[in-house]
Amino acid sequence: MAKQQRILAGETAAITGGARGIGRATATAFLRRGMKVAIGDVDIEAARQTAAELGPSTVAVPLDVTDRDSFSAFLDAAEEQLGPVDVLVNNAGIMQIGRFIDEDDLTARRMVDINIHGVILGMKLVLERMIPRDRGHIVNISSQAGKFGAPGGATYSATKHAVVGLTEAVRGELRLMGANIDLSYVMPYVVNTELGSGLGQARGLANLEPSEVADAIVEALKLRTVEVWVPKSAKRTSLMATVLPRRLSEGFARAIRADRVLADADSLTRRNYELRASRSEPALNEGADTPQIARESDEQPDGHRRAGLDDAA
Ligand code: NAD
How far is CA 217 from CA 34, 225, 253, 303, in A? Predict the structure, then answer.
C-alpha cells in the first residue's frame, strides 16, 4: 500500500545554518508548502537579510549550535513566534579541507563541535519538546562523505559518518520507546554553495543546486524517508561499493576521480569560505585567523593552490 503523504502546510520548522546555501533553499521550499520557518545562524546579519527576503512567515534568530543555551533560546524563540516546532533541520555545518597530517587541532575540533556536537545538542533539545507531544521530524544533514571517506576531507568525513550513525541509533531508541518521531539523514553530493566552492569534479557527476537538496528534504518529510540520497542514483553506487570487492570499488572511484573531489580543491577559490568557516564557533575564535589553507609549496603554475595532496596516481 502506498504511504500516506503528510500535509506540511501550517507546520513550524526550525533550520540551523539557514542564512544561506542549503538551509536557505530549504526554508524557501518549506515556505512554498505553507510552512513557517525559523532560521538560526551564527551569522545573524545574513540570517536577518534572508528572513527579510523570504517574507513574513520567516524569523531569524541568533544561534551557535555548539552552545546549549544558544540552541535552547533559538528553539524558544521559534516556538514563541511561530508555534511548536514540528520539524528541526540540523543543517549548520562547516567543511575545512586539506591534507589530514597538516590539519591543526583547532580546525578538527571546530568541525567536530559544529558538525557533530551541534547535531547531538539539537536532537536532545528538540526531542525534549517533541516526545511529550508525540510528534515531530528531525532531519540531519550528512553528506556522501558520510558513507565514503573523502581524501582531503578526513575529519569532515568522520563528522558526517557520525551523523549517519547517530541518526540510526537515536531512531532505534525512539522506536524502542514507542515514540512517534521521524528521523531522516540526507546525503548530498557536491552542492553549489560557498561550502562546496572550488572543489574537484568526478567524471559523470554533476554538482547539485541547493534547491535539489531542499526538494529531497520536502519529499523526505512527506514520505517519512529515513535515508535520503541526493541524487537518488547515488544509492546504487553505495550498494555497489558494499557488494564489490574493495579492489574493484576503489578502482572504480579512482577511474571516475571521486577520490579527487576534495583532494583537488582549489584553495584560492575557497579562501573566503575557509576564513568564514574558521570563525564559525565563537568560543574558539582565538584561532580563527589561521584557516586550513594549503601551503606556499602547493602553488600551481596557474597561480592557484591545491589542497596539498600530490597528484601521483
Ligand atoms: P554554507 O556555508 O553555505 O551554509 C552553512 C550555514 O551554517 C552558514 O550560514 C553558516 O553561517 C552556518 N553556521 C556555521 N556554523 C554555525 C554555528 N556554529 N551555528 C549556527 N550556524 C552556523 O554551507 P552549505 O553548503 O549550505 O551546507 C549546509 C550543510 O550541508 C552542511 O552541514 C554541509 O556539511 C552539508 N553538505 C554540503 C554539501 C555541499 O557541497 N555544499 C554537500 C553535502 C553536505
Answer: 15, 9, 27, 39
* 185 a catalytic residue: no
Q: Quick check: CB of 114 below 6 Å from ligand 1?
A: yes
pLDDT number for residue 313: 32
Residue from 174, 204, 183 nearest 87 by CA: 183
Mean pLDDT along residues 23-38: 98
Mean pLDDT over 243-256 rounds to 92
Segment (H or E) for 183? strand 182-188
- Cβ atoms 37, 86 nearer than 8 A: no
Number of Cβ within 10 Å of residue 80's Cβ equals: 10
Answer with the residue of higher pLDDT: 41 or 301: 41
DSSP per-residue string spanning 61-77: EE--TT-HHHHHHHHHH
All 3 cell numbers of residue 127?
A: 526531542
Given the DSSP bridges, would you call strands 87-90 and 227-230 parallel, antiparallel or unpaired? Answer: unpaired
User: How many other CB atoms are found less than 10 A from the CB of residue 118?
Assistant: 28
- Ligand 1, residue 70: give the atom nearest the CA: 19
265 Cβ below 6 A of ligand 1: no
Residue 66 Cβ contacting ligand 1 at under 6 Å:
yes
pLDDT tens per residue, range 200-223: 899 989 999 999 999 999 999 999
Nearest to 307 by CA among 273, 272, 260: 260
pLDDT digit string, tens, across residues 37-73: 999 999 999 999 999 999 999 999 999 999 999 999 9
Our separate counts of H helices and E strands in the chain read 10, 7
